[in-house]
Design goal:
It comes from Adineta steineri. 27% of the residues lie in helices and 20% in strands. It has 10 helices and 12 strands. Helix 3 runs parallel beside helix 9. The longest helix has 15 residues.
Length: 342
Amino acid sequence: MTLRLTRRFVHQLFIRRYASKDSSITTTTTTDSNKDLTTEKSSEISTVKRAFTLINPKTVHEIKRIDDTPIKNEMDLIRHRLTENRVKNIPIETDVLIIGGAIMGSSIAYFLKQRSPDMKVTVLERDWNYTTSSTVLSAGGLRQQFALEENIQMSVYGAEFLKHIRDHLSILDEDPVPISFQHNGYLLCGSEQSVKLFEENHKTQTSLGAKSKLLTASMLKEKFPWLNTDGIAIGCYGIQNEGWLDPWALLNAFRQKALSLGVLYLNAELVGFDKSKRVWADGTIENQLDKALILSADDNRIYPMDSSFFINAAGPWAGEVAKMAGIGVAGEYPVALPVEPR
């Protein structure tokens, strides 16, 4: 099948940086893995080793060639990559393709395979060591003090899940990596104008199973003598199921369990979608995602992959993934996903 690629897809490609064994290339020593390893132009690099990519808004339109094939423009490069021999670890199809393999992607993969063992689940993760993942850069906090019911319910469920983590994430009856959960409640404070809101939120939280306690200014001063209560009229303190944990350990526990259930992890990234038009019975024409275009870190080539469902778990880069799918660009879905890296 000939893939029809749009100009927009080409513009979504990320920068690729490459290292070479060519002795004519001068290398520099640096501790920053995101800096260029060569001082020569990409067209002079003859042998490819590995690639690591990050979105760079200033140079997002650049594409560097990685082989000796005569290429005149970006479209020639894409077509050439799509016609190369497929590497062994890139499947041609999957039932569910999860874009992003950190805590969200890995946990989604785990729950899907737990509920449907025969489902083919594939996870794409471009940062194989999670060096730039929001998961491992976070404090790993867990709290239940929210105003939205769905957030409260997810946190209550999360606390119960962690209490029984051995039942969920053990492999061959071995304990998962200790996540080192530290119980310590969150304290939220408000002024006189916030009292009614705090009371309403507390009522909602307790009705859904969250354990928190409202404190007046005098009660706050007694419980936390170091706290300056000037201007504070009310506080809410989590008395159970709040605290922090080791996010790296929890990520590994989810990932290893997902792998044991048969989830396929690929060191690759999404660079676009091939789309097709579907005509409904009423004559409505709708653009649908046909194939995901996957850039493999093993050989720096792009491969198409069929999938029934695509799940965007790309964290700060979820907005970029949404644009590749046509969300936030002119057309059917003009409203962008308001997520971007800081």
